[in-house]
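Purpose: get a first structural picture of the assembly so the mutagenesis plan has something to point at.
Setup: two entries, given in the order below. No constraints added.
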Amino acid sequence: MREEDIIRRKFGKKEPFTVPENYFADFAERLMNELPEKNAPVVHTPAAKVRHLRYWLATAAVVCSVAMTGAWIYLKQASASKNPVASVSVDHEIHVSSETESLYMEDMLEYALVDNSEIAMYLTGSN
Amino acid sequence: MNMTINEEELVRQLQDKSVQRAAFARMVSVYSEPIYWQIRRIVLSHDDANDLLQNTFIKAWTNLESFRGDSKISTWLYRIAINEALNFVQKQKNHFSLDEDSSVVDFLMSDDFFDGDELQAQLQEVIARLPEKQRLVFQMKYFQDMKYEEISEILGTTVGALKATYHHAVKKIADFFQEED
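Result (C-alpha cells, whole complex):
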C-alpha cells in the first residue's frame, strides 16, 4: 500500500513510549499482592434488597404526598368558598345541588389519585 | 509474547481452584506486556495505562469463572483491556481537548515516558483524532503486526471490514503528513 509506505518511511514502526525501569518485572508481583481472595464472600443480596425496598418506599412516599397535597388544596379551596374573607351581599341565594357536590367529590378523588372502583372495593370490603 | 505457553493447560489450571492463583500469576506475567501496550496506545499516559492494566487483570480475576476457553486467553484479555481503555477515554474526553491544536503533542512532549520527537508526537495526535475503530485497527495492524483474523476476533468485526477500516486510517494519516510537507 503506497500510503502505508509513506508512513513507514517517515516514522518507522518503533513506538516512542517508554515505561519505568523494571515495570513489567514488578507488575505481576504488585498485582498479585493486590488481588482479592477468590473465596472471599461477595454479598450482593442484602444491598440489592435494600435498594429494591428503597425504590418502592420512595414511590409510595411520592404517591402519598401527591394525594395528600391534592386533598389539602381541594379542601382549602372548598372551605375558602364556604367562608369567604370578605362578605358580599348577594341578591340571590346560591343553591349547591347534590349534583354539584358529586362533581366536587369526583374532582377531589381525581386530585387524590383514588379510583371509584377502589372506594367501592373499600366500602364493600372486597379485595 | 511468550508463545511457548501451553494455552490449553493454562485454561485448565485457571479453572482449577487449587492452582488457580498460581496459574493466574503465570497468565499475568505472560500477557501483561502486550496488554499494557495495547492500553497505552489508546490512553497515551503511562500512569493511566498502569491503572487500566491493573483494572483489566482484576476484572479478569473476578470473572474467571465465566471464561471457558471458547476464545484464546489473549483475545479475552484484549477485549477487557480495550473496553476499559475506551470507557476511560470516553470519561476523560476533556483530558485532551482535541479542539485545540497540538494538545496531544504538548502532553507527550512534556511526558517523561515519551522519548519521541515532535513529529512522532504529531503522529500520535493524528491517530488520536481518528474515529475509534480506525484508530484501534491502525494501532493493532501497524504497530503490533496483528493478523486481521486475530483483530477480527477481538473487535468482532469481519476481516473485509477491517481491511477497509485500515485502508481508510492509513490514507487519512498519509494525507495529513503529505499536506504538511
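Residues 45-82 of chain A form the longest helix (38 residues).
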